[in-house]
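Request: Mind sharing a record?
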Amino acid sequence: MSPPFVTVIVPTRDEERYIAATLDSILATTYPADRLEVLVVDGRSRDRTPAVVVEYAARHPAVALLDNPKRTAPAALNVGIRAARGEIIVRMDAHVVYPPDYLPRAIAALAETGADNVGGVIVTRPGADTPMGRAIALGLSHPLGVGNSYFRIGTAERRWVDTVPFGCFRRTLFDRVGLFDEELVRNQDDEFNFRIRRRGGRVLLLPDLVAYYYARPSLRHVARMYFQYGYFKPLVARKLGRIMTARQLVPAAFLLTLAGAGLLAPWFTWAAVGGAAIAAAYALAVGACVVAATTRHGARCGLALGAVFAVLHASYGFGFLRGVVDHVLRRGRAVPDPATLAPSR
């Protein structure tokens, strides 16, 4: 029997710097080339991303460029799914490089295990060859930075999990659970995978299926991205009727605890002592990571890592709290353009 026809969907917007490497890695797959199409769905990029894709399409018949007038990732995915010819659909983001066996191994696991979605582990690489760039990559793959998110920190064995990146799905799955929620500019994978599991499906993480993600190059970009991640979590929770994982509450709870302790400290000794103890415990945990990073990567990278943790947690926490206000306390408010959600610095 012929292997199933596969559609790879790549949402893009302003990815001129990375899209060529992403397409090169996808086209280098060991999966049969005549059983593959690659749909790059571009969200009206302001750089040369569409031109680069057109150049690839001229050389590779499998590559096609589609337009995404709504400009967001979930809208791009839905455009691609509607246009797809494949029995299997795989989401593969730009900003990422994939090994040649990524597609065949994910597709094989989908068939062998009966999973509804299969994904792998992200290995985070620096987006810039600087101490800060290396520190950002370390922070995004460290348990203190991202908690017990196994697809980011790695795992030793196959796991049934709540979500995975760069999912591999059967086309029929979308008939059962619907398309991606276009209101969720961020966290659309989380919500989609929850719908899979709520309908009795399973999401599989393969520890040795690896994709190489290039992190954002600056703290400003990281702050904006994690603010958005936090901001859309309450909207996901409102739609699902529950919080998906306890770890998403931790940054906001940490900020609220420190703020509450600070407000109560002038009147209550216990508040001052408790707040100081929590702040000291956090500083010790970050300090231990800074020392370890300094030993392995140098003092500048180690010190930068301390700033990365602070920005990750504060941005996510503040984003989550604003999301609670906008999506829970002020229900019905239109979701703003994500470009306006975070401060410019």
About this structure: The longest strand covers residues 203-214. Residues 246-340 form one domain.
